[in-house]
From TrEMBL:
Name of protein: MOSC domain-containing protein
Residue span, MOSC domain: 39-173
Lineage: Bacteria, Pseudomonadati, Pseudomonadota, Alphaproteobacteria, Hyphomicrobiales
GO MF term list: catalytic activity; molybdenum ion binding; pyridoxal phosphate binding
UniProt xrefs under InterPro entries: Benzoxazolinone_Detox_Enz (IPR052353), MoCF_Sase_C (IPR005302), Pyrv_Knase-like_insert_dom_sf (IPR011037)
Species annotation: Rhizobium acidisoli
Pfam families linked: MOSC
Length: 218
């Protein structure tokens, strides 16, 4: 049976709305540099196992790497944040590397795939907000605000690299196993799971660091 292409879970066509990269910059009052300041690019970008070629990753202990190569925000989630914050959300505001139109972050689970041309991205983790994010948003309470909103950003590994550019159609391919939503991942982050939930998490292609944490709980 032929799959329906370029349709999201919510039944709308999906496409790459923006690709964003950044350069190392210092936050006001901070001594370290960060790559969280992103701006949209108009042309095509090469995406390999480490993410968008040319994008700055300053703290590789907590950012980047094979299971956090591409950070995605859905346009429907960003529209919600625009209303919540009372101002337009320009691409890159949250440090996202890709914006996909017609996508609500709450609908996404670990193992879901986004396919655009040769590029294949697989969801591996949720964004956990940090002090750098709060400082960038100029709001010391933003970590709590972001957590309570329960619409975390989406980290993906690159299954197959390729060239991407704004306007390219995106096919959504749901994970076939039991669902572990990214909202659930954020809600349970740092907690000890029940044996049943731990087994469900480990059956999904979760981030290798989370996998190691859960396996240590056995």
């Amino acid at each position: 049976m032929q799959r329906k292409r370029n349709r999201g879970r919510i039944g709308r066509p999906m496409k790459i709305l923006a690709l964003c990269i950044g350069n190392p910059q210092r936050l006001p009052g901070k001594s370290y540099k960060t790559g969280i300041f992103k701006h949209a690019v108009n042309g095509a970008m090469m995406i390999d196992a480490e993410g968008l070629v040319g994008d700055a990753i300053c703290n590789r202990k907590h950012h980047g790497g094979i299971d956090q190569a591409v950070y995605i925000e859905g346009s429907l989630t960003l529209d919600w944040w625009s209303g919540e914050l009372g101002r337009p959300h320009e691409p890159g505001t949250f440090g996202e590397k890709m914006v996909i139109s017609g996508l609500d972050n709450r609908d996404v689970s670990v193992g879901d795939r986004f396919i655009s041309g040769d590029l294949v991205l697989e969801v591996s983790a949720c964004r956990i907000p940090c002090a750098t994010f709060a400082a960038k948003m100029n709001d010391p309470k933003f970590v709590k605000r972001y957590t309570v909103a329960a619409r975390p950003g989406i980290y993906c590994r690159v299954v197959t690299g390729g060239v991407a550019k704004p306007g390219m159609p995106v096919e959504y391919q749901p994970f076939r196993g039991e669902k572990v939503t990214i909202a659930e991942l954020m809600e349970t982050f740092g907690r000890r799971l029940s044996a049943a939930d731990r087994a469900r998490y480990l059956a999904a292609p979760i981030h290798y660091k989370l996998r190691a944490m859960l396996e240590a709980q056995r």
